[in-house]
UniProtKB/TrEMBL annotation:
The keyword Phosphoprotein applies. Pfam families: PP-binding. Gene3D superfamilies: ACP-like (1.10.1200.10). It comes from the Eukaryota. One of its GO terms (molecular function) is phosphopantetheine binding. SMART domains: PKS_PP. Keywords: Phosphopantetheine, Phosphoprotein. This is Carrier domain-containing protein. InterPro entries: ACP-like_sf (IPR036736), PKS_PP-bd (IPR020806), PP-bd_ACP (IPR009081). Residues 15-93 form the Carrier domain.
Length: 97
């Protein structure tokens, strides 16, 4: 039991990257209407997001991840793919960004 609580204490606080990635992928699919799989490293602009849908995308992420603060307007341009945005959201949840 002591080892388990030591491991829990050593684990980083904040959102779980796997959960963030799953939710983020779902939001991309919702906003783009894409029926195909969203790849982690594919630029979102190639997945069907454009400058207009980028606003809806950021707003939906702010709603889904309520508590990480305001996401930057240029989110999709600063963090161009699911992997980069996942890391950014996880870092924000841990107070690192």
């Amino acid at each position: 039991a002591a080892a388990a609580s030591a491991a829990a204490a050593a684990a980083p606080k904040g959102l779980d990257p796997d959960i963030v990635q799953a939710k983020l992928t779902h939001v991309v699919e919702q906003v783009t209407g894409a029926g195909e799989e969203v790849h982690l490293d594919t630029p979102l602009m190639e997945s069907g997001l454009d400058s207009l849908s980028a606003v809806a995308f950021r707003n939906e992420l702010s709603r889904v991840f309520d508590g990480i603060g305001n996401l930057p307007a240029a989110l999709m341009f600063d963090y161009p793919n699911v992997r980069a945005i996942t890391q950014h959201i996880v870092d924000r949840s841990r107070g690192l960004a």
